[in-house]
Amino acid sequence: MDTGSLRSNNLLRATHLTAVDDDPEETREWLEALESVVRVAGHERALILLRLLEEQAQQRGIVANVPPYSAYRNTIPIEQEGPYPGNLELEERITSINRWNALAMVVRANTAYGELGGHIGSYASAAEIFEVGFNHFFRGDDGRGGDLVFFQPHSAPGVYARAYLEGRLTDEHLANYRQEVRGPGLSSYPHPWLMPEFWQLPTGSMGIGPISAIYQARFMRYLHDRGIANTSGRRVWGVFGDGEMDEPESVGALTLAARERLSNLTFIINCNLQRLDGPVRGNGQIIQELESLFSGAGWNVIKVLWGSDWDPLFARDKTHSLLRAFADTPDGEYQTLGANDGKYNHERFFGRAPELRDLVSHMTDSQIDALKRGGHDFRKLHAAFRAAAQHDARPTVILAKTKKGYGMGRAGESRMTVHQQKKLDVEALLAFRDHFELPFNDEDAAALKFYRPADSSSEMEYLLERRRALGGSLPARRRRGDSLPVPTRDGYAKFALEADGKEMSTTVAMVRLLSGLLKHRTLGPRIVPIVADEARTFGMANLFRQIGIYSPFGQQYEPEDAGSMLYYREVKDGQLLEEGITEAGAIASWTAAATSYSAHAQPMLPFYIYYSMFGFQRVGDLIWAAADQRARGFLLGATAGRTTLGGEGLQHQDGNSQVIASMVPNCRAYDPAYACELAVIVDHGIRRMLDEQRDEFFYITVMNENYSQPSLPDGVEQDVIRGMYRLRREEPASPRASLRLLGSGAILCEVIAAAELLAKNWNIASEIFSVTSFSELARDAREVERWNRLHPTDGARRSHVESLLAGNAPIVAATDYVRAYPQLIGSYTRARFVALGTDGFGRSDTRSALRGFFEVDRHHVAIAALDALARDGAIGSDVVAEALTRYGVNTDAIPPWEA
Ligand SMILES: Cc1ncc(C[n+]2csc(CCOP(=O)(O)OP(=O)(O)O)c2C)c(N)n1
User: Fold this and answer.
1) Please, what is the average pLDDT of the chain?
2) From the CA of 649, how far away is ligand 1's center (Å)?
3) In 191-287, which ranges are E strands?
């Protein structure tokens, strides 16, 4: 949205409020009429009248364009605020203590080490938001499953500070903030991988929190609607930054939340108007912009802009001069006002117009200085949280206006550089202590001592009682779920294990495996198939009918294909998540399902099947976050391989994902060639994740090329899982040399054909290996290499690669991925190792043309094999030259990665 026009709209609205009024008598009559409607018939009726008036005004052309946001004031009028159910004084004190401890842990870490980072300003702005949640709304898990809370990542010190008061963290923990390697340290941001019993939801990469929160709330409904868990009464809360809302992921799923009426979801946007470098919207108003965005997307929007001490000013402001001035103030100026004292605000804000000056004529500069923004006022925040929790039709966003670095005084409050502020001098520390009336002396303040009141103090009793009433502490993460029974493999995978030469693609095999698993009595209902508008592409349309597409509203229309066997069946307890064209949304759904064992004590087994190119490459950071969250499930990269997916071209053909997957520590990635290998890997994955409850997930690439599928050879099962097995030997009568050929995915077929060429045309023997995972091989080889290095006198271990590829016969490895993929094992073999791959941009053509172009077809594999043998001196280089001629290779072609 253009903030310029936003601002002018805002001005327009302000002007409309009190444009030069030359008939005050008539104005008064109108206003009194409105008052009496409200009194007699209530708010609803008044709203109807106003809406009709607005429509009429538009029709008459009086109002050309009604801005999609309301005036710059609190949404909840003071009459609807209701009484505050807590003890304000104690809550203020607890908040002040948290502020101090959060600040002390950051400053201590940086004073001692100088480079550890951490943030003070963000939590300083969010402290009251967090406390209202902790004292009144965020439900712990008392056995029925609690709320899920997404915490603004750089406010983590505030969450630690509270856990410290609750007795969940010690002085030692706090003293080791951001020092995780040696001690019982605390991670910089919320990372379940690093603090698996504390953090539930990673948010450190901006934008991932908001989209994940939406899909978590949706998944709670899914569990409920499918009768798996009663999630009614549970909520998802997300505290996010206003700067963070610029991330596409933050806003990309807002309409889904409204469409599915996720009233169990509340966002609280901490609108401190600043991000890292400067103002979020210096020349505009981020709050108004966000209001338009969220209300346009269908959310319930609650603005909390001004604290209670502004209420009397509003009450006296009959001419709306305050609203006019607010509308006229861009955020950059709000920041400057926020960074300056009461005198400055008196002159520069209230001094703008006589009506404004009159409003505060009774106030001193320090009273003006003490006027709070709404996000620092417990009453206003509580009213908003309560309204959000009571709203039963839509998700709610609370736009809470705060000050970045609130309470840091000249050391940071609303300063441009506050985000980076990590060190405070003694004077600033004492000022902070005084500002928040903290009960310790100068020495303790200067020494940055953590402060925890005595257990018997009213603060501690209050704080603990509040958490008890709300079901226990939070965040707290469950490490294990219940184990799920693992079906016997023969029940669903026989067709693949005993394929006996039948032709099929691995994609078809995967879908058949999935269909079989779905029929299993106990595991079946726990499976969550997920697609992003590609079910038909992968031949999964039968699932529409078999298990139904989840829709909270069932199917309120007659589908066009109602008469067909495979009709598009939407149903309230549908099992398939059809996400539409949003890979980010689909992976967020997958993550919710893949972490359900922890978040909901309900293990689920998600299979998200997608175009492999649109996975690790497109939403890799969301996958990284899922890995942090200890996700368990299957990701299926379909239509994989840069040359196996013919026709589709540069943005579709995936030669990259296996390499990216190899970098995710708890991702087990496989590129099987055969359906039988796939069956072994799926079975293995199910056992690891559901039975052994290991925190790992499986990425498997499957292809759409049909070829003959062998049965599983005897005795290779463990090797399939370890990443490579010996397939066979291709041997001419009296070979002149021999070598090893490795192939994975669909390129294995080319490798086998190359072995036949080598035997027939060149009298060379080859041993053929099917590699199911170069990354698993490398993982094992890396571990063995390290163990050997650290235990030099204990007798060397051998990796799987070394065991199968011992000796000096050269090795040629070919895949449908970039060379970096097979090269993952290149340094672990003694013999010459040659990698062939698909480096470069894909393009549209047939499979065979593409394989020729990328030099991974049978001819190029054979040539690479001959070349390797020639370089080892086993044959002459003239053989290579002859082969190049025989296979018609254009030796002057430019390399594919430069074409
Ligand atoms: C994807 C991503 N990009 C950049 C960052 C670095 N970063 C951390 S905090 C921050 C500013 C956040 O501003 P805002 O969301 O307004 O929160 P505030 O601290 O102002 O409350 C940035 C850019 C990040 N963590 N993640």
Assistant:
1) 94
2) 36
3) 236-241, 265-271
Share of the chain above pLDDT 70, in %: 98
Q: Whose CA is nearest to atom 10 of ligand 1?
A: 276
Distance CA 535, CA 566 (A): 12
Q: What is the chain's Cα-based Rg?
A: 32
At 423 the pLDDT is 84
* Mean pLDDT across 633-650: 96
**676, 615, 622: which is closest to 640 by C-alpha?**
615
DSSP, res 713: P
Closest CA to 868 of 817, 818, 813, 815: 813
Q: Whose CA is nearest to atom 22 of ligand 1?
A: 276
CA distance 672 to 649: 23
547 token code pair: 């298990």
- State the pairing for strand pair 764-771/724-730: antiparallel
> Count of residues for the chain?
899
- Summarize the chain as % helix, strand, coil (round to 5): 45, 10, 40
Interatomic CA distance for residues 77 and 67, integer angstroms: 21
Give residue 368 CA to ligand 1 midpoint distance, Å: 31
Range with lowest mean pLDDT among 118-127, 602-611, 625-634, 889-898: 118-127
Look at residue 5 in the predicted model and tell me its pLDDT: 42
Decide: 585 and 255 in contact? Cβ < 8 Å: no
Closest CA to 76 of 302, 298, 318, 309: 302
Beta-sheet strands, E only, within 772-863: 811-814, 833-836
- The pLDDT value recorded for residue 15 is 43
Q: What is the pLDDT confidence band of residue 19, given thresholds at 50, 70 and 90?
A: low
Closest CA to 223 of 554, 482, 572: 572
Q: Which two tokens stand for residue 827?
A: 């340094």
Instruction: List residues near ligand 1 (CB under 6 A).
Output: 122, 125, 154, 204-207, 241-244, 270, 272, 274-276, 280, 404, 419
Atom of ligand 1 nearest to the CA of 280: 16
CA-based diameter of the chain, in Å?
113
